[in-house]
Amino acid sequence: MRKTAKAERNQIFGEMTGNGRTYKPSPMTEQKYAVALALYRDTTLTMKKIVEQTGVPEGGFRSYLHLWHKDLVLERSGIDKEEKVTDLRRERKRMKTVAAKLFPGGAKRNMLKRYACMALLRKP
Question: Which residue among 18, 72, 98, 113 is least crowded, i.e. fewest CB within 10 A of its CB?
Fold first, then answer.
């Protein structure tokens, strides 16, 4: 059997691509998602509530976040940028929104620490 090599993305934000374009979102796209992005960054609202409030398409906003603002997605999930993550669905237990529901009065850092410890205790 022949193994195929994994295709690696070599596009770097702000750099030129092979077709002569700069690799970044268009100004129109940035403007479209600006309010939703600010809510995502500054609040603990779920993506569903943010989409309902701003009126942007849910799939488009999710795609925009994962492509251009992966650091915010990882931060909200409680994951370090250096940590290699293959499946974000498994990391849901450390999400900022879940921690805010469980510990509404505490500091964010303490909430995430406590919830991460509880999750580690539950692991087999």
Answer: 18
